Amino acid sequence: MSLSSPIIEYVVSIQIDTNLSKEANEWAFEFQLKGDRNEVNFSLGQHMIRIVRKVFAANTNCVSYMHEFRFSEKDVGKIKQLELVNFMCQESIKEVNLLEIQVKNIFRNDQQIFPIDKPISSNSRLVLRPNLKPGENGIYYVITTHTGNKQMNKSTELNISFQLIGDKAKTKSIALQHSQLNKQAFVCGKKDVFEIFANDVGRITKVVIANQSDSNPNNHWFVDNFEVKNLKNSEISNFPVNKILAPTEEIVLFPMSICEILYQVILRLNELDGQASPNKHLVDIYFVIKGIKGSTKKIYLNNYETKRQDHHDQDPKEKYFEFKSDDVGKIEQINLSINAENSPDNYIFIDFIEIKIPVRSEAYKFPIERVLGEYFEDGKCELDLEVWKHPERHSHIGRD
């Protein structure tokens, strides 16, 4: 004779940007809570609110509302997952920004925090896992995996997890589930992308990857490459692997070493309305180079202006810069910005930018042909630019 799970009390706190008890008459959240012993389905609505309190974000005027509920259900054991199955609300509220959900098992004194910070609307579904502990700061990471062509697994449900370790903190072990690219993850020759909300570990120093699948010869995973992108600062950490990971096996990986290389930047200025620029000095220019291996830090370009060694008579409309920074590999994009000052003197009119990497004899051109400055055109002071797709036509720029 099996014993049924005891009925216990739960406290659920839902933090959103709207006070639903005042803004709407009819609304409800439908959830499924999973633990290591059981799972339960429950709904939370207007009539179940125990208390609503304001939450003020630190150092800002932003206010959100914590809606607290208390209810009784069977014991699920240690909380593993919370799924938002549905959100229903009257038509006057199209969507709300769901910031965080806290679930506490009173019987076990087990409290789990699910940071979210995403808009939800009617019929939204979210699968949430408690990646943070109370007091930890969370950020989003994008995990990209490449499964090699020597794939040995025939399983449709590999159980792969990872842990990030950085110079400030570390995450818990996090399962890789729900690939954004494929219905089934970790298929031979495929790339998978996962978005994870986890503790901010700072600069990543290593990653632990584990194959937690059952001990079965079909459950091997040939991982070719593992990449982590920090969406807070766009820093990319790349981990070449090229290894078969057997069930119950884990490996510790260190990011591919990044060396500094020399970058040469040529900035070709234009004239405004046919007249020479009235600027007596170059405006403050900031520069980020983005490549397949990662991104450079934000560089104050003015500090690195110099004279071209290959041109004795340099065109005054050309500004030339040299600096050393992280090798980002093949360049894909740059971010260019100036200080935002609503003044007719704070602008720059650029024809194009060229970046050269002498160590690899590479050159990349970025046509611009526009003004940057709040006082001009659309008022933009920042641009994201893609590489021009005709490299054979710009092996050299400037006067001979």
Q: Helix fraction?
A: under 10%
Order of strands across the main sheet: 4-5-1-7-8
Q: Based on DSSP secondary structure assignment, what is the total number of beta strands? A: 27
Task: Give the class from helix and strand content and strand pairing.
Answer: mainly beta
Rounded to an integer in angstroms, the radius of gyration calculated over CA atoms is 27 Å
Name some characteristics of this structure.
mainly beta; five-stranded antiparallel sheet; 27 strands
Set out the fold topology:
Elements: E1 7-16, H1 20-23, E2 27-35, E3 39-45, E4 49-56, E5 63-74, E6 79-89, E7 95-105, E8 110-121, E9 126-128, E10 138-147, E11 160-166, E12 174-175, E13 191-199, E14 204-211, E15 221-230, E16 235-245, E17 250-253, E18 260-269, E19 285-291, E20 294-295, E21 299-300, E22 305-306, E23 318-326, E24 331-338, E25 348-357, E26 362-372, E27 382-386
Antiparallel strand pairs: 1-5, 1-7, 2-3, 2-6, 4-5, 6-9, 7-8, 10-13, 10-15, 11-12, 11-14, 14-17, 15-16, 18-23, 18-25, 19-20, 19-21, 19-24, 22-23, 24-27, 25-26
